[in-house]
Specification:
Blueprint: H1 37-81
Length: 82
């Protein structure tokens, strides 16, 4: 049932008689990477936007810190005056 089936008459392999007179040299080329100007513009715009967001977060954090120090100072002065 699971025995392999062989062909009745094996066909001989053809003999390879052709030999090239002068083999062509193998040319190795580097892959061509094509980056479009749209992709470059997208990366630049994305970098500018992310930098602006980071600057906005930093300015906001500094503003909140200054406001906290001022409020703490005002509240401390209020407690000492009584």
């Amino acid at each position: 049932m699971f025995l392999p089936k062989y062909p009745d008459s094996p066909t001989p392999l053809p003999a390879h008689t052709h030999t090239p007179a002068d083999p062509a040299p193998v040319q190795r080329t580097l892959p061509q990477v094509s980056i479009s100007t749209g992709a470059i513009a997208t990366v630049i715009v994305g970098g500018v936007v992310l930098t602006a967001l980071l600057a906005a977060v930093a300015v906001t954090a500094i503003s909140v810190a200054v406001a906290a120090v001022v409020l703490r100072s005002m509240l401390r002065d209020q407690h000492t005056r009584r």
